[in-house]
C-alpha cells in the first residue's frame, strides 16, 4: 500500500510482542526500524517513541548507559509537547537507568518527579511504576521505611486480575525490604505468599522487571533465614536465566543481558 506511517505504527507493537516472547534480537530490530523510518518521513513523535522503546529495552537487559542515552534523547523531544504522562514514563525509566549506573539520588529524584506527574494526570499504571522505581532507589539508598511504603503502594494499586505476576514482584520486594530492616517474620510472610502462589501455577514474570528480581529477593530472604528452599529457588532462577539468554543471538545484547 505504500503507507509508511501505517508501517511505522506496526513496528513498535511488533517489537513489544517479540520482547515479551523473549525474542530480544527481533525486538530491537523492530525498534531500530521504527527509528529509521520515523526519521526518514519526519515523524517527530515516532522518533521519540522509538527512542523510548530502545531506551527501555537496553535498560532492562542491563546496558544502562545506552538506555540512558536513548531515554534522554526521547525525553528532550517529548518535553516540547508538554504531555505529562509521556514525560513521566520516560522519567521513571530513566530512574531505572540511573540506578543501574549507581546514581542513586538522581534515580530517586526522577521517580518522585514521575510520580507527581502521574498523580496530576491520574495515570494509574504510571503511579504503580513510579512507586516501584522509587522503592528500588530507596532500597539502594538504605531508606528501608520509604522503600517499604513505596512497595506497599504498588501492591495496593495493582489490579489483582490484570497482572498477577506483578503482585508477586511487589511481595518479593516487600519481603526483601523487611528483611533488610530486620523484620524477619514479616519478610518470610511475604516470601511464603510468593512461593505459595508460584506452587499453584502463579506467574513470577514480575511486571516490567521480569522474573529475576523475584527469584533473587526470595533466595536472599530464604538463605538468610536458613530455609532449605533457597537452593531450589536459586537453581530455578539459573535455569530461567539460561533459557532467556539462549534466545539472544546478538553478541552485544547477550553480553549486556
Explain what the structure shows.
It is a single chain. The chain is an all-alpha fold and 257 residues long. Helix content is 79%, strand content 0%. Helix 5 runs antiparallel to helix 6 and helix 6 (104-120) packs antiparallel against helix 7. The protein is globular. 44% of the residues are buried.
Short description:
It contains 13 helices and no strands.
What oligomeric state do these chains adopt? Answer: single chain
Got a strand count?
0
Rg for CA atoms: 19 Å
Order of helices and strands: HHHHHHHHHHHHH
Note the overall shape: globular
Total of DSSP H or I helical runs spanning 4+ residues: 13
Mean pLDDT: 90
Largest sheet: none
Helix content: over 70%
Q: Strand-residue fraction?
A: under 5%
Gap between N and C termini = 38 Å
Q: What are the low-pLDDT stretches, counting only 5+ consecutive residues below 50?
A: none
Task: Sum up the structure in keywords.
257 residues, 79% helix, mainly alpha, 13 helices
Secondary structure topology:
Elements: H1 4-20, H2 24-41, H3 44-61, H4 64-78, H5 84-100, H6 104-120, H7 124-141, H8 144-157, H9 164-181, H10 184-199, H11 212-224, H12 229-245, H13 251-256
Helix pairs in contact: 1-2, 1-3, 2-3, 3-4, 3-5, 4-5, 5-6, 5-7, 6-7, 7-8, 8-9, 9-10, 9-11, 10-11, 11-12
